[in-house]
Write a structure and sequence with these properties.
Chain lengths: 622, 230
């Protein structure tokens, strides 16, 4: 019994020794990989006549000049190289001494797999002279360009977010400091990453290969690196566009959005066009809230679907080709997901006004003093980037009184002839009277008796974490937001954010304007209902304060009796008159003496000269 | 000896004999090979050995350890170049002007010295030599540019380095396998590490290749390269 056990043990040991020898991580691990072209290989593409695994690439004597005793005929073809507006390194055509050139002797698709230097033209099962087909994913130049491949054969310029791989990392630069194909790929070993395979030098789970060099600020704690909803994350599969073999955005890492070879967008190697890369997940299939449908189905929306290929990651005040804010009147306007969201830094963190929430973390902005900010601190700075000093506005749609997609656009008293009429940054920062978006207003409660103690949700209940006081600030998105999203404060599975709304001016709740009469000064207004004014009621108690005449003692008369809308007299952004009074010139006209003026003498008192709904006020005091 | 000890010893012997099996060609295997100039060139009065070796050195023949009683005129090429690669840990030493065993091979195989060029003239033969000064082989086949050849004349990686880069560690300074079937020369790889100039077809060899100890990797890949390049 003991003898038999000993024999078994010895045999097992001997087998293990032989097995270890065969399954090492050295050159012979090439066996039965896609690079094993032996006739007896299990690879689909293989030779018809040779059983020597090494000879397709290597020869001991009289190799091609250069390294690695190369036995494969080299390609002399050059193809366009990678470039991008954010690229710091210099990429040149491949040089003879670049080891990547050896890889390209098959992988640019121009040389037959069996074309050797010293062993003739080896016949392949696929036929003599078989080259990688143009459509093959292994053929980097099947599309006649390397511009949509991660650059190779260059010295990476290290920068804040790009480092050289650490010592002992399987990802490594060559001795001259260049990145080569072999920085990421080991041609002899296919399964160092057993899921993705692809001859990667190590597991690329959660993009470990990419992260050896690319260290995007904020990535480690971002919602895309650490999705807060694990169950939702696992819904990202091949069906949704995952191409690495891994499941989940966390595991796919960079390659959830990028692809190192043959992505749809060459610059920055983005795997789908613009918003479509986001819509892989944010269409309700992976992330639980469907952003795509807001863009598709809502009447008023940021034109993300309509502005192709204008956004550029390098845009900013110093970019020659992509200045932002735009400096030229003729520049096309654009809005892409990436204008408001930094997918490397996004988190699910909430914030209080005016600070950006996690969803807007790490996005470029324009400060209230019109300074460019690499990372906006306050939410309004993100909005000011396009809705501030951009020279290419107003667009025709902004200027129309019934602009398509914008609803009726009130032309206001202090907008006329004012260069800043469409500059929300100037409005909020330069006006004497303003909603506290870019700065606190600090009006006393006596001056704004309607101000609620907290914001209320769309059901009328207080939102406890949004207290209001005279020193409060509010977000742009307190008014401009989804009309169905969770921003309403009630249960909703729809996303928050100003992606789209069915309420004109992309408002989250109703603030109905009165229709423009045939001539300003005439007209009969619009019936008051609370439902028509829920936006103002969100912070200002319309029923119990405004219409109870707590501030202006003729509010009820104007709004209920004379059917004026809030918007007829008040500009929700800002005004040069007190109390946001800035008449809608489509409705209100100068009086019979040609005077249009509101003055405030003390809280709740003042004079008014105007003509509205056929009524003439001539310095009427109250 | 207990039964168990006997079984263990038997199994060990089996393992060792399996892994170490290799046949070294006898010198006479040069007969009929490409190195058999007596047959090929009709040198009737010569011994086959005298094309390279001489029993007693005279005259200008270089002397020193390891020169194998060499009589063929050595090349005076001073620069052959040195193979380099990005991943190579060893640094080969330029062979030009050296007197290593590889220089003996290069005395014909760099193509600059005629085959019938000796230190100690071999006169009085009916051998029809190639004209004096004729190159050994055609331009395409010359081995003068050593940057395009597998490197030689470098110190074989030590055990730690070998493990790190997936090489078979050398058993000692005299051979990789420990039995002289994959010889090293003072720890260095030379032409003769892979080739045995005497291993003609009668020994079963091809291109004067040595019979390396059989390994599963070689069987699997169909290549001797993986004896060292695991």
């Amino acid at each position: 019994m003991r003898i038999r056990a000993a024999i078994t043990l010895m045999l097992l040991a001997a087998m293990a020794a032989i097995g270890l020898h065969a399954q090492n991580n050295g050159k012979s691990s090439i066996i039965n990989t896609k690079h094993d072209f032996r006739t007896s290989s299990s690879a689909a593409i293989r030779s018809a006549s040779t059983n020597d695994a090494c000879v397709f690439c290597h020869t001991p004597h009289n190799s091609t000049p250069g390294s690695y005793l190369w036995n494969h005929q080299l390609s002399n073809r050059n193809f366009p190289v990678y470039s991008s507006t954010t690229l710091q390194s210099t990429i040149t055509a491949i040089q003879p001494q670049d080891t990547s050139k050896l890889c390209l002797s098959c992988h640019d698709g121009t040389i037959a797999l069996g074309d050797t230097v010293n062993d003739g033209s080896i016949a392949f099962a696929q036929g003599n002279g078989y080259t990688l087909p143009a459509a093959s994913a292994s053929n980097l130049a099947g599309d006649q360009t390397f511009a949509n491949d991660h650059p190779f054969g260059f010295v990476p310029q290290t920068a804040a977010e790009t480092t050289n791989p650490p010592a002992l990392d399987p990802v490594r630069l060559d001795k001259s400091g260049k990145l080569q194909c072999t920085s990421c790929h080991d041609p002899h070993r296919e399964d160092a990453d057993p899921t993705t395979r692809k001859f990667l030098v190590k597991s690329n789970q959660a993009s470990a290969v990419c992260l050896s060099c690319h260290q995007k600020a904020g990535w480690d704690n971002s919602a895309h690196s650490r999705p807060p909803d694990v169950a939702a994350d696992l819904r990202y599969t091949q069906t949704q566009g995952a191409h690495t073999g891994y499941t989940g955005v966390r595991n796919n890492g960079c390659e959830s959005c990028h692809r190192p070879h043959a992505p749809q967008v060459a610059q920055r190697l983005i795997k789908n066009m613009e918003e479509n890369v986001c819509f892989q997940c944010h269409d309700g299939t992976v992330a639980s809230r469907n952003v795509k449908t807001d863009f598709l189905s809502k009447t008023y929306k940021h034109p993300v679907l309509l502005t192709p290929s204008i956004h550029d990651a390098a845009e900013g005040p110093t970019s020659a080709t992509h200045s932002l804010p735009e400096t030229s009147v003729g520049m096309a306007r654009h809005a892409e997901c990436a204008d408001c969201h930094n997918s490397h830094m996004d988190t699910s963190a909430t914030a209080q006004p005016p600070l950006v929430s996690g969803a807007l973390a790490g996005v470029k902005g324009q400060s209230s003093s019109n300074a460019f900010l690499p990372q906006a601190i306050n939410e309004y700075e993100v909005c000011f980037k396009c809705h501030g000093d951009s020279a290419n506005k107003p667009q025709p749609l902004d200027k129309g009184t019934a602009g398509i997609g914008f609803g009726r656009n009130p032309q206001r008293q202090y907008d006329a002839g004012n260069l800043n009429a469409f500059n929300t940054r100037a409005e909020f920062t330069l006006s004497s009277s303003f909603h506290p978006v870019a700065r606190a207003r600090n009006l006393s409660v006596a001056e704004v008796p309607s101000l609620r103690s907290t914001v209320i949700n769309s059901g009328g209940a207080p939102i406890s974490n949004r207290p209001l006081s005279s020193g409060s600030q509010i977000y742009c998105t307190d008014c401009h937001n989804s009309d169905t999203g969770r921003n309403l404060g009630t249960f909703s599975s729809a996303p928050s954010g100003p992606h789209g709304s069915n309420i004109a001016h992309l408002l989250e709740r109703s603030s109905v304007m009165e229709p423009a009469p045939a001539a300003p000064g005439s007209g009969s207004g619009i019936s008051y209902t609370l439902a028509n004014n829920t936006l103002c009621d969100k912070c200002h108690d319309v029923q119990n304060s405004v219409l109870a005449d707590r501030s202006f003692r003729r509010h009820n008369l104007h709004v209920v009796g004379q059917r004026a809308a809030c918007s007829t007299c008040h500009d929700p952004h800002a005004s040069q008159s007190p109390m946001l009074v800035n008449f809608d010139l489509s409705v209100v006209a100068p009086n019979s003496r040609g005077v249009l003026q509101f003055t405030r003498t003390s809280p709740g008192h003042g004079t008014c000269s105007l003509r509205c709904h056929g009524e003439d006020h001539n310095n009427l005091s109250y | 000896m207990s039964k168990i000890t006997k079984v263990v010893s038997l199994a060990l012997i089996l393992c060792i004999s399996l892994s170490a099996y290799a046949a070294r060609a006898p010198k006479s295997a040069v007969f009929g090979s490409a190195h058999d100039f007596k047959t090929q060139l009709g040198g009737a009065s010569y011994t086959l050995c005298n094309f390279c070796h001489i029993a007693h050195k005279f005259g200008s023949a270089p002397t020193g350890p390891g020169y194998l009683l060499w009589n063929h005129t050595l090349s005076n090429v001073s620069t052959y170049g040195v193979y380099t690669s990005d991943s190579m840990r060893s640094t080969p030493t330029e062979l030009g002007g050296q007197l290593t065993v590889s220089n003996l091979c290069l005395s014909c195989h760099d193509g600059t010295v005629a085959i019938n060029s000796w230190y100690e003239a071999q006169a009085g033969s009916n051998f029809q030599p190639l004209p004096q000064g004729t190159l050994f082989s055609s331009e395409a086949g010359i081995a003068r540019d050593l940057t395009k050849q597998h490197p030689v004349n470098f110190v074989y990686p030590d055990a730690t380095t070998a493990a790190a880069i997936g090489m078979q560690p050398a058993a000692d300074l005299n051979s990789v396998d420990g039995n002289g079937n994959v010889p090293l020369f003072a720890g260095r790889m030379q032409c003769a590490t892979c080739h045995d100039a005497h291993a003609g077809p009668s020994s079963g060899a091809h291109l004067f290749f040595r019979a390396f100890p059989s390994t599963p990797a070689q069987t699997l890949t169909g290549s001797s390269c993986v004896y060292c390049h695991l």
